[in-house]
Amino acid sequence: MAQRTVLVVLFDQVQSLDVTGPVEVFAGAERHTPGTYRVVTASPAGAPVRTSSGLTVVPDGPLADAPEADTLVVPGGHGTRAPDPGLTDWLRAHGPRARRLVSVCTGAVLLARAGLLDGRRATTHWAYCDRLAREHPAVDVDPDPIYVRDGRVATSAGVTSGIDLALALVEEDLGRDTALTVARHLVVFLRRPGNQAQFSAQLAAQTACREPLRELQQWITEHPGADLGVDALAARAGLSPRHFARAFRAETGTTPGRFVDRTRLEHARRLLEDTGDGVGQVARASGYGTPEAMRRAFVKILGTSPAEYRRRFRPAPAP
User: Fold this and answer.
1) For domain 4-186, is the CATH number 3.40.50.620?
2) Which CATH number is 201-313 given?
3) pTM for this one?
4) Is 149 helix (H, G, I), strand (E, B) or coil?
5) Which pLDDT band, with edges at 50, 70 and 90, does 198 fall under?
6) Considering only CA atoms, which of 77, 87, 88 is closest in space to residue 53?
7) What SUPFAM superfamilies does the record tag this protein with (predicted)?
8) Domain residue spans in the chain?
9) Is the pLDDT of residue 155 over 70?
10) What is the pLDDT of residues 219-261, one digit of tens each?
11) Which residue, 20, 16, 85, 25, is CA-closest to 51?
């Protein structure tokens, strides 16, 4: 197997984790299986760059002297807001040559400026999805997944999702055993499915200000199989059902029912991805009661059945 060159582009005000996350994954895979990856970093002029958090990173050299990349990684950061035109030109010329073109966070903005995402489905950090869609209407922006693969181009939501995407690429290249070893070394999950939402139920809703409601939010996520009707939740919070529903929505930005629905769906997805529990068992544990009720929720929200979701997104067992 020929050694693959992973070229990571650096620029001033880059997000440090967008760089170091994927670098650690590919470097870890090289340590596990020597001769598989050569990780190279390069900046437009070959000069050190200062990240958005104040760290200084010294590249291996200038982009003009960088080797041809098997996998070209473009991180994000504040520097994507007004990028060096020379960097955009370099990406436009060299991006199509790489076997795989990868962006992390707002690195997708740089790819879009270079015309490399036109006609493709892509994602970026949730806070920048509207901007990406508005400024680049030829890009099919999906704000929900943590990463998206569209042919040879892969885009991710940023920060830790860059690690998820890099692990998926290592698994594609070298198999699950190597990817699992790297993940264990980094103390992360082997792989979150790319279509996993950028927000968990807790993050998607605001955290309530009042302690009873804040504690209730946490209790709901820990007990998805319990009676989570408005009357039961109101009693647990010590409020009347009407007062509870009004206060919950005012403080979290969503209704109790929607919060419960998202919590149960998230719990069921996690069980389908991470366990071998039967669909009926997952339905009961997640509060759906019956497999048919869970199937209706999955089809409505995800457009697929629980069985098909598991088939597509649960990692295959190690050989």
Assistant:
1) no
2) 1.10.10.60
3) 0.67
4) strand
5) very low
6) 77
7) Class I glutamine amidotransferase-like, Homeodomain-like
8) 4-186, 201-313
9) yes
10) 998 899 999 999 999 999 999 999 999 999 898 888 999 999 9
11) 16
